[in-house]
Amino acid sequence: MRKSGTPFWLAISILIILMSAASINQKKSRILFFGDSITEIGVKPGGYIDQMNKMLADQKLENNYELIGSGIGGNKIYDLFLRMDDDVLAKKPNVVVIYIGVNDVWHKQSKGTGTDPDKFEKFYDAIIAKLKKENIKIVLCTPAVIGEKTDFSNQLDGDLNNYSNIIRSLAKKNNLPLIDLRKAFLDYDLQNNPENKEQGILTVDRVHLNATGNKLVAEEMMKALKGM
Amino acid sequence: MRKSGTPFWLAISILIILMSAASINQKKSRILFFGDSITEIGVKPGGYIDQMNKMLADQKLENNYELIGSGIGGNKIYDLFLRMDDDVLAKKPNVVVIYIGVNDVWHKQSKGTGTDPDKFEKFYDAIIAKLKKENIKIVLCTPAVIGEKTDFSNQLDGDLNNYSNIIRSLAKKNNLPLIDLRKAFLDYDLQNNPENKEQGILTVDRVHLNATGNKLVAEEMMKALKGM
Amino acid sequence: MRKSGTPFWLAISILIILMSAASINQKKSRILFFGDSITEIGVKPGGYIDQMNKMLADQKLENNYELIGSGIGGNKIYDLFLRMDDDVLAKKPNVVVIYIGVNDVWHKQSKGTGTDPDKFEKFYDAIIAKLKKENIKIVLCTPAVIGEKTDFSNQLDGDLNNYSNIIRSLAKKNNLPLIDLRKAFLDYDLQNNPENKEQGILTVDRVHLNATGNKLVAEEMMKALKGM
Amino acid sequence: MRKSGTPFWLAISILIILMSAASINQKKSRILFFGDSITEIGVKPGGYIDQMNKMLADQKLENNYELIGSGIGGNKIYDLFLRMDDDVLAKKPNVVVIYIGVNDVWHKQSKGTGTDPDKFEKFYDAIIAKLKKENIKIVLCTPAVIGEKTDFSNQLDGDLNNYSNIIRSLAKKNNLPLIDLRKAFLDYDLQNNPENKEQGILTVDRVHLNATGNKLVAEEMMKALKGM
Question: Are A162 and C156 in contact (CB under 8 A)?
Fold first, then answer.
């Protein structure tokens, strides 16, 4: 994360200071990633959390951060709500990154059990309130994609845009940092998906991330965490 | 609720005692009905709560019970959960009758936002736990009908039976009284719907109750409350 | 339909020729509009077909065209297919304007009985083949809107874009004129819906047309028919 | 298929006559099974059509019948309609056994693209009409199960019962033989599924048949064909 123009001696000095600080505090910042199957897979080799750990190691920051994955396949916003005490609060994180929304939209079509938009907002609000009460820092993410076509002709694009708008306004309302993965993925696909394919650029199956997709998420996450 | 064989003077004596008790305690038992549109309509003239009030008056028990309707159209189990503090706990009820489930099933088909069965159970459990903690008595109800055909060929019969089974085992597990409206409605329709009609016997539109349906619910509720 | 630059005497001459032709042939061109509730409402006062009749009268072309509305609420592509013989071929039209697609998408969400995209294309193809065999001219339309928000955050935008793409490629493949109502509505709303409202600009309820919407459809239809 | 009371010499005589007839006519009765994945799997080793071939061989009837499987996974009633010419009429069958309906119900829930009941009946009617016109004998089947619980608490039981009723009345109206697989499966499960399991008695996954399920279908089919 060193800017390219930083002189070598300055970088080294900063690094020494940071490492000292870390050894003095004996404390790593605990970042918990709270989400669905994308996060469940994220901790596996090549997953976005695994890639973040490597990025941190490359930057000699591995002693500053502990990354905790808490993703469960199929989770929707209210699944997160129901398992907060056990899976989040009990782990005493400093930061929680909420990365949810795909199933809230997808299950409408595949199971008939998606989440109403107003209920999505209410449970999201309830999660934020609980975390705030514990003085845990919060980062929000928009859900990336269900289908990578770039002309908004993926079946669920409309709804995914709607739920992303809800998350964006929750971030604004609560003055919380936002990682806009939906925008990042669309921007990337607009550059790299000239054939308007459904999958294969950032995902393996329209939803779950391939190596490039995991890398893109890892980079976006790193940018946001750097500022915290 | 006086048995037909009770002598008049005894009934009068009991009544006087009861009324005295009521005036001494200055306290009515507060029964809150927690549900969806069926309960929202239930407080209106002819609705099941309105009919219960009349039944109580007929039995000179109107000073013993205060019936509070808290039904909101479209509510599912997690809507009840989200509005517990404001709409239930704040009202200090002695008894809460939970009458929910139709929309958890119906919205799967009409909106794509029904409730997964395991989530239905989890939120129901969470509601029971919260009420128990406040020493509030709890009565469970099964959802009556979405369609009155008696050969299990109403579109959502399978799922409605499934969710009713979940509620029945919640009642058993928690040792709580159950008002099995689904069974009561099916029994009534088996007697009174020889043409296998979709609606018109106990409902106006396959779901919402007509006068007879409201009466049947009121009677079933009275039976259960009598025992509390 | 006279170009603004046409001299008056020429317009009059053409008109006289056209009217003579009409009286000689004793034949009007029969245009049948084949669709769903939007077309069913289209024949009523203020509807798009009613407005087209007025436009034709204003242009003294009422003797050249007979407009026949054949819209039934809730129709999907295969409903059109099933009623072709009775409702289209029996009426011997010269031109059939196919305006369908909203329910094929919408019913997925509201009833669970939408149309698979490949089946949509197959039945559309079968309708085109039947009309071609009878030497009936065919005009295709894309479905306009389900929600008027302009940032593609209406719930069904993705699917509606997908089905519109299918219709566009059917028009191309079969070399048929296309009235791209989806594009026309989006363009209009981008100009006239700065608040990103769901309805009220061209529709009364996100789907069915208000006076302005009916006028826009009538104008787009007139442009296309002029060229036939 | 010989009744238990038939004397041996008579059975042999009939068999000789039948075999002579077959060799004279050089013609087998062609039975085509028209359906979905259950029929697609039915031709594979152990599938119901494979089992029927073995049953016919055991009864020395293999020269009298040619069984043709025409099942495609995911097919609904209108898929059958769309592929009638190529897959049925072109093959000149003497008998067509229509075994469809599971996906018409299931896709409502899993894809949003099930079939409206009135459209199910219309396309079924259209298929029957086309086959009758070619003097092809027709046998109808009800769809067996989506879930094997016997108390009508499988999610889609209500709808499956409804579509089975539609098929039953189509058989009656058209005076056609009916193989009531839904009834046969329920009867079998009532005897053999005391634990009210979802699958494993006649199916591997609530829908697709295990060896026992394929055998039951084969036996029911044989009974019906015997009478033709």
Answer: no
pLDDT of res. B13: 52
C137 within 8 A of C228, measured Cβ to Cβ: yes
What whole-number distance in Å separates Cα of residue B110 and Cα of residue B105?
9
pLDDT > 90 in chain C, percent: 86
- Kindly state the average pLDDT of the residues C129-155: 98
Q: Which residue has the tokens 């998606």?
A: A114
For residue C83, how far is the Cα from the chain centroid?
18
- Contact, D100 vs D83, CB < 8 A? no
Q: How confident is the model at residue D115 (pLDDT cuts 50, 70, 90)?
A: very high
What gap in Å lies between CA D131 and CA D208, rounded to an integer?
A: 27
State residue A225's pLDDT score: 86
Going from the C-alpha of A96 to that of each of A53, A138, A163, C85, D159, the distances in angstroms are 16, 5, 20, 62, 44
Residue bearing tokens 């993705």: C158
Residue A21 has pLDDT above 50, yes or no: no
pLDDT more than 90, % of chain D: 86
B165, B201 contact by CB (below 8 A): no
- Phi-psi map region of A6: left, alpha, beta (phi>0 left; psi -120 to 50 alpha): beta
Residue C22 confidence (pLDDT) above 50: no
Query: Which of A108, A109, A161 minimises the CB distance to C152?
Result: A161
B112: phi then psi, degrees, rounded to nearest 5: 75, 15
Return the HEC string of A6-34: CCHHHHHHHHHHHHHHHHHHCCCEEEEEE
> What residues of B are in contact with residue C107 (Cβ under 8 Å)?
none
C31 in Cβ contact with C67 (< 8 Å): yes
Q: In chain B, which residue's Cα lies nearest the Cα of A110?
A: B112
ipTM of the complex: 0.86
Tokens for A79? 């699944």
The pLDDT tens digits for A32-46 are: 999 999 999 999 999
Q: In this predicted structure, what is the pLDDT of residue C13?
A: 52
Q: Which chains touch C (3 or more CB pairs under 8 A)?
A: A, B, D
pLDDT 10s digits, B23-82: 445 589 999 999 999 999 999 999 999 999 999 999 999 999 999 999 999 999 999 999
State which amino acid sits at residue D76: K
Top residue of C109, C113, C156 to mutate, by most chain B CBs within 10 Å, is C109
Separation between Cα atoms, residue B122 and residue C190, nearest integer Å: 45
Q: In what order do the strands lie in the sheet with A137-141?
A: A65-71, A29-35, A95-99, A137-141, A178-179
CA distance A105 to chain C (A): 10
Confidence (pLDDT) at B20 = 46
> Looking only at Cα atoms, what is the longest distance across chain C?
59
